[in-house]
């Protein structure tokens, strides 16, 4: 399995491997000790309603969005457009606007 516990962090980019969102990229906004993560992409899944997903259903990528992670951790406001834009800057989810 490609998922690595040591790479799990808020702001890390993941790709969905199953479900109707298969192939979409998201960022982790919260970690659940029961083996779940909460993910958003700013479009299909917004910050107000993050997707709870099992770790085995995502691939953890070697990319992170530290500027967004810092804001989430510090409790500062983050906007869906920031997340959408950051993922698009990485070349992700461009066709799924």
- The amount of helix comes to 10-25%
* Residue windows where pLDDT falls under 50 for at least 5 positions: none
* Class computed from helices, strands and strand pairing: alpha+beta
Distance between the termini: 30 Å
Classify the beta-strand content into a percent band.
25-35%
Mean pLDDT: 90
Radius of gyration: 12 Å
What gross morphology would you assign? globular
For the sheet with most strands, the description reads: 5 strands, antiparallel
- DSSP summary: helix tally: 2
**Biggest sheet: strand arrangement:** 4-3-2-1-5
Give the number of DSSP strands: 5
Write the H/E string, N to C: EEEEEHH
Task: Summarize the topology.
Blueprint: E1 12-16, E2 25-32, E3 36-40, E4 51-54, E5 58-64, H1 66-74, H2 80-89
Antiparallel strand pairs: 1-2, 1-5, 2-3, 3-4
Task: Tell me what the structure shows.
The structure is a single chain. A hairpin with a 3-residue loop joins β2 and β3 (36-40). It is built from two helices and five strands; from the N terminus they run βββββαα. The chain has 97 residues and is of the alpha+beta class. It has a five-stranded antiparallel sheet with strand order 4-3-2-1-5, covered by helices on one side. Helices cover 20% and strands 30% of the residues.
Keywords:
single chain; 97 residues; alpha+beta; 5-stranded antiparallel beta sheet; 5 strands; 20% helix; globular
Quick rundown:
This protein is an alpha+beta fold and 97 residues long. It has helices at 66-74, 80-89, and strands at 12-16, 25-32, 36-40, 51-54, 58-64. 20% of the residues lie in helices and 30% in strands.
